[in-house]
């Protein structure tokens, strides 16, 4: 079974952030963050505000956003 948003999860782990800490730093409820991380990648459930907050906290540059939130597009796959 493929783990959704694995690259995003690993980035948070590399920065020693637990999921509940990441939620607090981004202003998200822990349950909401968990739901987003476990949603299918093609679900499109991330809001622009959530992506922006996560990018700020995790130091994801604009040119790398697709790698973390839209991996299917990065690979050239279609939904």
Draw up the topology in text:
Layout: H1 6-14, H2 19-26, H3 30-37, H4 48-58, H5 65-69, H6 71-74
Helix pairs in contact: 2-3
Give descriptors for this structure.
79 residues; mainly alpha; 6 helices; globular
- C-alpha geometry: globular
**DSSP helix count?**
6
* % residues in beta strands: under 5%
Q: How many strand elements?
A: 0
Give the low-pLDDT segments. Answer: none
Helix percent reads 55-70%
Q: What's the average pLDDT?
A: 86
Q: State the end-to-end CA separation.
A: 18 Å
Q: What does the radius of gyration come to?
A: 12 Å
Structural class: mainly alpha
Order of helices and strands: HHHHHH
Describe this structure in words.
The chain is mostly helical. Helices cover 57% and strands 0% of the residues. It has six helices and no strands. The longest helix has 11 residues, at 48-58. The two termini are 18 Å apart.
Write a compact overview of the structure shown.
This protein has 79 residues and is mostly helical. Helices cover 57% and strands 0% of the residues.
